[in-house]
Design a protein that fits this description.
Elements: H1 2-15, H2 21-33, E1 42-43, H3 45-52, H4 56-68, E2 72-75, E3 79-82, H5 87-106, H6 116-130, H7 134-150, H8 155-172, H9 178-197, H10 201-228
Helix pairs in contact: 1-2, 1-3, 2-4, 2-8, 5-8, 5-10, 6-7, 6-9, 7-8, 7-9, 9-10
């Protein structure tokens, strides 16, 4: 927890003079998505409030917002915890991803497309793989899909998927072999990027649909195995 709190203290400058629960929730959401607070972590009001320099009431409102987004859960007489997803949660996340991400690609219109963000995410993933940094590769993978959604040019879609991708990170935390999960999708990200660079959105959508189906199967396999082992780490 000390490392996480040090990171939050660095985020304190982001609050500026207009500290609000929404901005605190943005910071915590990002930290959850980046893997600083794994599923099941208890979030201390005193420690986090002190690190960010915000009042207890502000922090509680931020917790409430993130609970509404299904990233946190409040347990009576125990406190606030980062949520642990169920198999059904994972399936629903991927269902949402399929509906939104494939629709974004399908509705892109005529090329060329603004693909700089996608290309940067692929490059970041390649660098992480070279360094055997599988957590960073997972982050780069999420950034790739966030940039893909951003191609729609819709603030509402970006906001919707921001919390979905944060939940996705919670699912990744329970994968026992992150390299096996993330490494194959680096090449698939590159293939989707290349299809879009060629202006072939139909091929990009086909690749994406297969990609999401395979990823869902892998993550659900891990979850079901954890359940069979007695539910360790599952809520």
């Amino acid at each position: 927890m000390a490392e996480q709190l040090t990171g939050l203290a660095d985020d304190r400058a982001l609050l500026g003079r207009t500290s609000t629960a929404e901005r605190v929730s943005d910071i915590l959401r990002s930290r959850i998505a980046e893997g600083y607070f794994p599923p099941g972590t208890r979030l201390s009001e005193d420690s986090i409030g002190g690190a960010l320099g915000v009042s207890r009431n502000t922090l509680r409102e931020a917790f409430r917002l993130l609970t509404h987004e299904r990233l946190l859960v409040h347990e009576l007489n125990r406190g606030v915890f980062v949520r642990v997803l169920t198999v059904e949660d994972v399936e629903d996340i991927y269902r949402t991803r399929g509906l939104v991400e494939c629709a974004v690609v399908r509705g892109l219109g005529e090329p060329p497309y603004a693909l700089e963000g996608l290309a940067a995410a692929v490059t970041a993933g390649q660098l992480a793989a070279v360094e055997n940094d599988w957590k960073s590769l997972g982050t780069a993978n999420i950034h790739f899909h966030r940039e893909l959604v951003a191609l729609a040019g819709s603030a509402r879609t970006d906001e919707l998927m921001r919390s979905v991708f944060a939940e996705l990170r919670l699912a990744f935390h329970l994968v026992d072999d992150p390299r096996r999960l993330h490494e194959p999708y680096l090449a698939r990200n590159r293939q989707i990027l290349q299809a879009l660079q060629a202006g072939d959105r139909d091929e990009a959508e086909r690749l994406l649909a297969v990609y999401l189906g395979d990823s869902l199967e892998r993550v659900v396999e891990v979850y079901r195995r954890r359940v069979a082992q007695g539910g360790q780490g599952l809520g």
